[in-house]
Each structure stands twice: as C-alpha cells, then as structure tokens.
Amino acid sequence: MFHGSMVALVTPMHPDGALDWESLRRLVDFHIENSTDAIVAVGTTGESPTLDVKEHIRVIREVVDQAHGRVPVIAGTGANCTREAEELTRAALEAGADACLLVAPYYNRPTQEGLYLHFKAIAEAVPIPQILYNVPSRTACDLLPETVARLAGISNIIGIKEAGGGVARGRRILELCGEKLDLYSGDDDIAMEYMLMGGRGTISVTANVAPKVVHELCTVALRRDREAAEAINAGLGPLYTALFSEANPIPVKWALYEMGLIAEGIRLPLTVLSERYREPLRQALRQAQVLQ
C-alpha cells in the first residue's frame, strides 16, 4: 500500500519551543518537490513525547491539509496506554490521514500476549490502515516476529517498521508473514538491505535532509539493482553516522537548521546538538551534496 522513501518528519519549532506552523507547511512542500513517497508525521523524530494531545492532532491535520492528497500521510499515534493510542488513531482518521504508525508500548514492558492484544484492540477500534513499529532500544520491549505474524492476520494491520535485530530480523519477518504484511526499515543504515531482500521501503530520518537521494536509493533497491543501490548508499554512509551522533532528532533538527529550512527550536529534555558533533555533520551533509 505504501512504498519507497517515507520521511519521519521533524516537527519545526521556534527557539522558545513553540510550534512553527509556517515551517511545517514549507517542509511538506519541500518533500513533495523532492520526490518523497510518503510523510510520517509526529513519530519519534517529530518529538511526539513532548507534544500535548492538541498539538499532536493539529500537526497531523496541518500535514494532511498541506499535502492535499499529493502524497500519503501516515500519522504517528502510538502510546503505552491502549486507550490513548485508540483515541489518537481515531483523531488521525478524522483528520484525513491515510494510515497510522503505532510504536510498541514503551516503559511498561508488556508481554508478547499484551503486545498482541494492544495492537489488535486498536486495529479493531479504528478502521484505518495501521503500521506496527518495533524499536526495542527506545521502548524496552521487543515485538517478536512470531507476534508480528499473528497480527498480520488482522486486515487493517498492513505493515511493520522494524528497528531492532538487524537484517536477520527483517528476513525472519518476511519468512513468517510473506505477502500478508509489508516490511519497512526503521534503521537507515540497513534500509538498502531490507529493500533488496523484499522490504517495501524505509521510514527514514535521513530523508529529512536528503529526500531526493533517499528516494533514488529506494527506487533502485526496490527493483533489486544491488550495484546501483550500493553506489548511492555509499554516499549516504557518513550521513547515517552523523545523524545519530546524539539521540534522534537532535542531529537532524540541527542539520535542517544549518540548511536554512527550520529554526533551531527543540523541546526539553532534548537539547541543541553539541558543538563537537557539528562539523562532522556539516561535512557529511556536504558529501551527500545537500549543503554547500
């Protein structure tokens, strides 16, 4: 249903932390002009933990309205409270989102049965396409492939963004789920391998700053052209490293500020990128030919 380069969009903010709606709308147009295949609003990269519910829903609405059907919009609506996730997912449906991205419940560390019942309840409560999101490094729980396979039998659970366990984890999900579920990479540095082995795309941090290049990478990788994909991917390698020198989205927001696309705002407890990481990130942006 969704494929290619799907940007995990940042949420622009003024230096005082207020949301910058004008810059948000400009970013949506920037991505459409640079061939991004779908926009993911208010995920981790969009600082969802620091937005209140009204802000969260308004960001979704603003992105949907600005995209105006030109590209699909996927709304981040996950929570560690099942009822809250249902409410956010319902609000995203009402706002006009094309799908929702639901992170595994964080901090409270549910069992696999709890994870299954959590996602099943949301899918049954809200009739919108839903993409699971597994990122154990942030959530302290791991949505195992066997549980993903159980969830793949629910009609509106259509994909998973996998960011734990490397290439082997992706291969195992493909083996268990086959055509019942689309696999997306949540780790930029292995996204190419995911697509070459049958994944449908990437939900990417790097696409924030290099949308056209990530789109080109996805295009060749999805047609299984390893040689062309490796050539493009090599140029992005330093950027993959630099964009995770501190916790995401700290580096990518600073990079977008350096590119003149957003202000320097970020909300506590996150802080602006440390001075020692700035020049390596500048160099990586130049190498990827997105900064002069």
From TrEMBL:
One BP annotation, GO: diaminopimelate biosynthetic process
InterPro entries membership: Aldolase_TIM, DapA, DapA-like, Schiff_base-form_aldolases_AS, Schiff_base-form_aldolases_CS
Assigned keywords, A-Z: Amino-acid biosynthesis, Cytoplasm, Diaminopimelate biosynthesis, Lyase, Lysine biosynthesis, Schiff base
SUPFAM superfamilies named in the record: Aldolase
Catalysed reactions listed for this entry: L-aspartate 4-semialdehyde + pyruvate = (2S,4S)-4-hydroxy-2,3,4,5-tetrahydrodipicolinate + H2O + H(+)
Principal location listed in the UniProt entry: cytoplasm
Feature type site, description Part of a proton relay during catalysis: T44, Y107
Pathway participation: Amino-acid biosynthesis; L-lysine biosynthesis via DAP pathway; (S)-tetrahydrodipicolinate from L-aspartate: step 3/4
EC main group: lyase
Residues annotated as binding pyruvate: T45, I203
Active site residues according to the UniProt entry: Y133, K161
GO function terms (MF aspect): 4-hydroxy-tetrahydrodipicolinate synthase activity
Subunit note: Homotetramer; dimer of dimers.
Family stated for the protein in its record: Belongs to the DapA family.
HAMAP family assigned to the protein according to its UniProt record, in alphabetical order: DapA
The protein's role, per its UniProt record: Catalyzes the condensation of (S)-aspartate-beta-semialdehyde [(S)-ASA] and pyruvate to 4-hydroxy-tetrahydrodipicolinate (HTPA).
Name of this protein: 4-hydroxy-tetrahydrodipicolinate synthase
